[in-house]
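pasting for ref
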Amino acid sequence: MAQFFQLHPDNPQTRLLRQAAQIIRLGGLAALPTDSCYSLVCALDHKNAVERLRRLKGISEKQHLALLCRDLSALGNYAIVSNIQYRLLKAVTPGPYTFILNATKEVPKRISHPSKKSIGLRVPNHLVVQGLLSELDEPLIASTLQLSHMDFPFQEAEVIRDTLEHELDLVLSDGRPCGLQSTTVIDWTTDEPKVLRLGAGPLVGPLEPVVVESKDLFSE
């Protein structure tokens, strides 16, 4: 049965964040609010947890998962990023954007696209997520908490707990409902960035010229 932690939205309790981090380190599957919508998350190094996440979502290895990162300092470990790409990412993060980038050789095969060798990376603008990532001191694997039969993602922590209490190990709540929009997904594995999904992140400022191109390869 899933544990349920109620965290303060502006000052998340360190004690609860540490407990949450320990559950995830041990292979737990968790639901947590973000700056877009609720996400399913698990530890980067737990193969079984990643397999549980994919089974619950009903997605194959051909669909991307995202890495939730505390900041851009983790980029070099997981993605090949040019100076131009870095400047744009810095301008729009943290925020509700996921960037698909060419993966480094260090990225585990279970989280990179099997044929394209790419990975989705995102830096969320959410204090609970940032606090948890600080406690873990490593990125989290993540996917939008929307099951295959659902038209929209889960919004309420209590509904998640009641519906998925036997599939999850932990549900985090900040006392607020999440939005219904996933992140805006931008593929930048070639010279020109392309929007694969329009979501919570607006195409403003440096993102205005980005081409919109719909695909269904991403399941963050």
